[in-house]
Amino acid sequence: MFERLGRFVVGRAWWVIAGWVLAAAAIILTTPSLSDITSADQESFLPRSYESVQATELGQKAFPQQATATAIIVVKRADGQKLTPADEARVGQLAQSLKAKNIPHTSGYLTGPPAVAPDKSVQVVNVGLDAPAPDDPALLEAVRDLRADIGPELANSGLTAGVAGDVASFVDNEDTFNNAFAVVGVATIILIIGLILIIFRSPIAALLPVVVVGVVLSITTGLVAAAGKAFDLSVSQDLQTILLIVLFGIGTDYILFLLFRYRERLRAGDDKRTAMIVSVQRVGEVITSAAGAVIVAFLVLLLASLGFFGSLGPALAIAVGVMLVTSLTLVPAVVSLLGRYVFWPSKAWQRAPKATISHRLGTVVGRRPALVAAASGVLLVALAAGVLGYKADYDFSAGFPQDTESAKAAQDLQRGFAAGALAPTEVYLTTSNGSQLTEQQVNDFAAAVAKAPGVGQAQPPERSTDPSVARVNLLLDENPVSNEAITLVREDLRGAVHAAAPPGTRALVGGTTAIFADINSANNRDLSVILPVAAGLIALILALLLRSLVAPIYLVIAVLLNFAATLGATVYLFQGLQGEPGVTFQLPIILYLFVVAIGTDYNILMIARLREEAREGNEPHEAAAIGVEHAGPTVAAAGLILAGTFAVLLLAPISFLQQMGFAVAIGIVLSAFVMSMFFVPALTALIGHKAWWPGHGDERPVGGPRTPPEPATVAKA
User: Fold this and answer.
1) Residue 674 lies inside a defined structural domain of this protein
2) CA of 188: how far to CAs of 246, 343, 505, 634, in Å?
3) How crowded is the C-beta side of 527, counted as CA atoms within 13 Å?
4) pLDDT for 59-90, tens place per residue?
5) What is its membrane topology (predicted)?
6) Has residue 267 been placed in a domain?
7) Counting Cβ atoms within 10 Å, is residue 178 exposed (0-12), middle (13-18) or buried (19+)?
8) What is the pLDDT of residue 344?
9) Given a cut of 70, is residue 319 above it in pLDDT?
10) How many CB atoms are closer than 10 A to CB 679?
């Protein structure tokens, strides 16, 4: 099949390229923009079955005047002393003056309840921020306008103020975010071009992945937008960035798989057309299987209860599908026309290097497979043990620079009030049959929940225009986005609040902490479903590729062990050495996307090469040695490029970006350099012919020709 495909593509290379140009132009010009299906609606992030979502919906109906977001003006004396009655009156005047300015998208300007901290250290003004969506740029402008007006209003008053809240924090860190992602984007291009230049010493080979991925990204965004319109799907604003990273990751992998094999066949004496046909024949099945495994892994995200991941899966699957077709048609067509010039101006590629590092590594694997398997396995298990100490961290603010206005204002606020003042836990009381709540019911309920576990302060109850609904805001003793607060809400506070509801009523707990508590539950549920299902489907693809039931078992075990080792290594560094309270709660899914899904490529490439060498008549130990020698450089180059791209995130001054960068980089390094280059080949050599049971995947096809090897020194077992 792949030989016929190779002959077709090479024989009609110009037609293939012309077809791609026409198809790309048609898709780009006729499909909608990705922004047309982009949504920032966080209500769909969690299913309606979760209590925090039900509480949010009830609050929006019962308190329609509730703003999209809140900015908190935190006022204190410049000399650090307690606020005087005159100061408190001056803050009231500030609120009225700001309200009179009619700053767009602001409302409320409430100085209670209660506005003054018990220790008189600060006084607050709560400002509602209204916009169609919580990420509307108008909210950022509203905060900037507030800050610009506060300074002149408090001039010569002896008071100073800062604006806190999520929107204010984003304003302060917007440049940090943009600079971090700009650095990553530039570093990705530089790394890909630079490393491929070092490997092939050719600007053409170096630019090929960048150009191809650019074309595929344009086509993919159009197809994803069209699919979103057709099936009424919405995607997150993060999708464009994730698509870019995924396409550069797998695109570079597949192009390198092809170029390394093409160079090998040219060295063996094939002409440029034959070399590409053989390359597509040998690598086409590997690329297709690898892409199939990644597509399956992404589509399994449809099983996620978190809406963000459910919409992410199909979009990424489309991207990988387009990259697969590109790698088997457009890339071979272009390279077959370029021929040896794809490696221009270098001539070093014509000579197979002697006594290379990969040759020596292959020799070690072939001669000492038991030692290599044990050493690499022990390393992975030791790192995986770190998972036992894993804690999820939901506090994004702690990872940002702490010298910004919003960070300092938040610190002042938490010193004056309970720790949860910045994100109150919202408790709603409503009657079961829609009848009116009595004052007695509301007051008794408010008094009871004020004594619930972990509550530092309780604000006076608020009645809705709907007489059947009331709300009490609780300020927790703990940081509202800490693990302690999330565990408190999930395990103790909710139970106490539910028990406090008078007969004939029901209580719902909402707010930021409750949302994160539900996300925590949903995240745990999703991982417990996604990982086993993905592992099973990837094993099925491997079984079809290898015609074996044994090899897929230890290959999937290796992938899952590598996932655990990656997460464990991150826990050791950030929770252990750096003393962080946890690692970002999104990390396990991020590792699933970039370590489990994409890292499987390296396993498939290596095991396919081991099978190929076995079919050439080599015994298991010798096949492992030759396989590592020839596939090792491809795996190493692809892994180094992808790992290096993510490692650049370590330069970002934001903790969760550093964690993501380290985790994915170390995960790819472990996938490429420990699992694929040592653990899997060594295990395959040890298991021997039984690795291919019940098929005969290691036997040369009857009557099949023996492909001449590349003229290189072959490692002997």
Assistant:
1) yes
2) 12, 21, 57, 18
3) 18
4) 889 887 776 678 888 999 999 899 999 998 99
5) Multi-pass membrane protein
6) yes
7) exposed
8) 87
9) yes
10) 27
Given a cut of 50, whether residue 713 has pLDDT beyond it is no
pLDDT digits (tens, 9 = 90+) for 199-223: 888 898 888 988 998 899 999 988 9
Mean pLDDT score across all residues of the chain: 85
Are 339 and 388 members of one domain?
no
> Quick check: helix, strand or coil at residue 164?
strand
Considering the domain architecture, whether residues 106 and 89 belong to the same structural domain is answered as: yes
Residue with tokens 């509202």: 480
Q: Where is 73: in which H helix or E strand?
A: strand 69-77
Residue 92: both structure tokens together:
């009231």
Same domain, 543 and 646: yes
Note the pLDDT tens digit of each residue in 396-443: 666 666 778 888 888 888 888 877 777 889 999 999 888 999 999 999
First to last CA, the chain: 33
Q: Say if 44 falls within a structural domain.
A: no
Domain containing residue 557: 357-406+519-699
Tokens at 24, concatenated: 């790309």
Domain assignment present for 245: yes
Give the pLDDT confidence score for residue 715 in this predicted structure: 35
Task: Identify whether residues 549 and 669 lie together within a single domain.
Answer: yes
Tell me which DSSP letter residue 386 carries: G
Report which secondary-structure segment, H or E, holds 495.
Answer: helix 494-500
User: Per the structure block, which two tokens stand in for 483?
Assistant: 């693990």
Residue with token string 């399994």: 300
Instruction: Please indicate, yes or no, whether residues 345 and 362 belong to a single structural domain of this protein.
Output: no
